[in-house]
TrEMBL record:
GO MF entries: DNA binding
InterPro entries: Timeless (IPR044998), Timeless_N (IPR006906)
Name of the protein described by the UniProt record: TIM protein
Gene Ontology biological process terms in this record: DNA repair; DNA replication checkpoint signaling; replication fork arrest
Keywords assigned by UniProt, alphabetized: Cell cycle, Nucleus
Annotated compartments: Nucleus
Length: 197
């Protein structure tokens, strides 16, 4: 596309559509149609006979368009307000550029090594999480089922309480040796004057 007809997309002011000659407009349209028709050619895998990872003919055409600067011109035509007459041609060319690509491939393409590192980090975090959960389970299994402050309730046979019933002891069995009837009662306070010397 002649830069005088479109203007330089890298900074100079484009020629207004009113100032363009009829031949410039026809030339621009023919070039856009040629690019569209070249990209529209369907792939033929049997004819290409390429190995895995090798660039297809379509990819090589896209690379040639990039090297020639045609992609910059297409971006300029798509974004310039005064070039709206070419919008459908540019849209068709862009859709043909992405014809064989899936959205997942395009999203992962720009990440490359970053995506691989992210996947490795995710796997490492998952293994650490699994290890932590396993440790938490083993700690839970090692814990006694009841906390140590629970003493239970025991009936002391042969030791009578206030009535004719046996004493009910609410402390742990290890406290049984220090049992007295005064356990839990507040000691009576003796005034200082009456205290033994």
């Amino acid at each position: 596309i002649p830069l005088g007809a479109l203007g330089d997309p890298h900074g100079s002011v484009p020629q207004d559509w009113e100032q363009r000659q009829e031949e410039d407009t026809l030339l621009i349209e023919r070039i856009l149609l040629l690019v569209r028709n070249v990209l529209h050619v369907p792939p033929d895998p049997t004819e290409e006979q390429r190995i895995d990872g090798d660039a297809s003919v379509h990819d090589r055409v896209l690379w040639a368009l990039h090297i020639s600067g045609m992609d910059d011109l297409l971006k300029f035509l798509a974004s310039a307000q005064v070039e709206q007459q070419w919008a459908l041609h540019v849209l068709e060319i862009i859709s043909l550029m992405f014809r064989d690509q899936s959205p997942e491939e395009l999203a992962a393409l720009g990440q490359g090594a970053v995506g691989a590192e992210h996947g490795e980090d995710t796997r490492e975090l998952e293994t650490l999480r699994q290890r932590e959960l396993a440790e938490k389970r083993t700690r839970a299994l090692q814990r006694p089922s009841r906390h140590s402050r629970f003493g239970g309730s025991y009936v002391l046979q042969g030791l009578k309480s206030i009535g004719d019933r046996d004493v009910v002891f609410h402390k742990g069995l290890h406290n049984l040796k220090s049992y007295s009837h005064d356990l839990g009662k507040e000691p009576q306070r003796v005034p200082r004057q009456r205290q033994a010397a």
